[in-house]
Amino acid sequence: MADRLSALDASFLYVEEPFVPMHVGSVAILRRPESGFDYARLLAMVSRRLAYLPRYRQYVEFVPGHLARPVWVDDADFDLTYHVRRSALPAPGSDAQLFELVARLLARPLDRDRPLWELYVVEGLADDRVALVTKTHQSMVDGTATIDIGQLILDAEPTEPEGQGEEVGRPPWPEWAPSSRPGRAKLLLDAVTDSLRRPAEVVDNVRSAAQDLTSTAERVFDTAGDVATTVRSLVRPAPRSPLNARVSGGRVFAGVSANLEDLREIRERHGGTINDVVFAVFTGALRQWLLSRGRSLEQTETVRALAPLAVRAPDSVGFSSVGLLDNRVDPCLVDLPVGEPHPGLRLQHIAHAMAEHVRTRRSVAARAMVRVSGFAPATMYSLAARAASSLSDRLFNVAVANSPGPQQRLYAGEAPLERIYPVLPLSRGQALAVGVTSYHGGVYFGLNGDRKALSDVTVLAGAVTEAIEELKGTNW
């Protein structure tokens, strides 16, 4: 039987546009070890581990006439060197130059005739560092059968270089026998068979349901408390904001690093959770950014954020040790008080709003999330992007996803991971998407913006640092 995409997975392919690619990504910065870290070693590492992710050697085959959803098909001509690529900056490359390269790489849609992922190793960074940039289509990463490629190559302990002694360019990947490609007749026959078994499933219903606010609310929010909280937001669109703009083909990206201990200090002094502090920091940064554009802010003015929340499924008793198998990510709408001039009161407002969302859901504790093997936030952000795609772009101004990461050092081979910035995709009509994660004592903000609407993304990035200092210096 055909390995058919789910309705949700297929929807990400249907709604994708050239200027709105539906892939998630990450920017990992590694310290080059004495033994070295280069393209050949990364190629060998990925080739040996790809057997754990069979989806990464499959491409999407569309059914003639769109009589059924597309199917996953083994790529008999799979070329690992096409997906694992090498790039470089003029040495010594700066972070700003790296982020400019990242923006250009992530703006390009993935090739639909091949498996929907890419991994770049970027050399030439200053201070003997290298960067890994990942791109994975949302249709692939569901947190159940498939995780993000970044989760596969990071380990809790350094590992010996793989493929030593092999000819460069010909890494020793294991033998793999792809299944034969289904012909047109086979695709049509399977489509008819599936339609007879599940006549209610029609592809067009996916697109219409995604645009129907009522059905979206019923589908995503499945408890009385959720519906009551959500309806209050659905009856009114998001406030007007420069963050809602027609998305162009260009992107800008900026990464911001912070000290986790600073956020813990703010939490200890003013209450709430680390997540509350993260959103208060971002709210303060948005306020400064809006003021820098000459905007006059009323004290009651807000920006509505879509804040995906990891929750346990109703029948789940715990958090899986190998993935997000028994859990899901639900979209939560939170009004950020950008008009409030006092940083302490902004934090109070956000803590109250977040507590209301958590009260109506079985939220997954941060300490449980970081126990997931590998770098789970990479997979978490794909699920967060899925949650963002389930709501109309008229309901929120910006997507902000925060996922805690491990506090112990991780490694790609023998190369220690220093920093990692998440990259969330833009939705139609959304000029900014923000990913936040913590790792090894640091907190990392990844700001992905539209190049026309958010050309001053570096101003917003600098405002994040200023907002942390503002909260640290606040006395009640």
Describe the protein in words.
This protein has 476 residues and is of the alpha+beta class. It has two domains: 3-185, Chloramphenicol acetyltransferase-like domain (Chloramphenicol Acetyltransferase, 2-Layer Sandwich), CATH 3.30.559; 214-472, Chloramphenicol Acetyltransferase. Helices cover 34% and strands 22% of the residues. The chain has helices at 7-14, 39-49, 80-83, 95-107, 149-153, 184-197, 203-211, 213-220, 224-234, 260-270, 274-292, 343-359, 366-369, 377-389, 457-472, and strands at residues 3-4, 23-31, 58-61, 71-74, 84-93, 117-125, 129-137, 251-259, 303-306, 309-312, 327-330, 333-336, 398-404, 411-412, 415-423, 432-439, 442-450. It has a six-stranded mixed sheet. α11 crosses α12 (343-359) and α11 packs across α15 (457-472). The termini are far apart.
SSE blueprint:
Blueprint: E1 3-4, H1 7-14, E2 23-31, H2 39-49, E3 58-61, E4 71-74, H3 80-83, E5 84-93, H4 95-107, E6 117-125, E7 129-137, H5 149-153, H6 184-197, H7 203-211, H8 213-220, H9 224-234, E8 251-259, H10 260-270, H11 274-292, E9 303-306, E10 309-312, E11 327-330, E12 333-336, H12 343-359, H13 366-369, H14 377-389, E13 398-404, E14 411-412, E15 415-423, E16 432-439, E17 442-450, H15 457-472
Parallel strand pairs: 5-6, 9-13, 13-16
Antiparallel strand pairs: 1-4, 2-7, 2-15, 3-4, 6-7, 8-17, 9-12, 10-11, 14-15, 16-17
Helix pairs in contact: 10-11, 11-12, 11-15
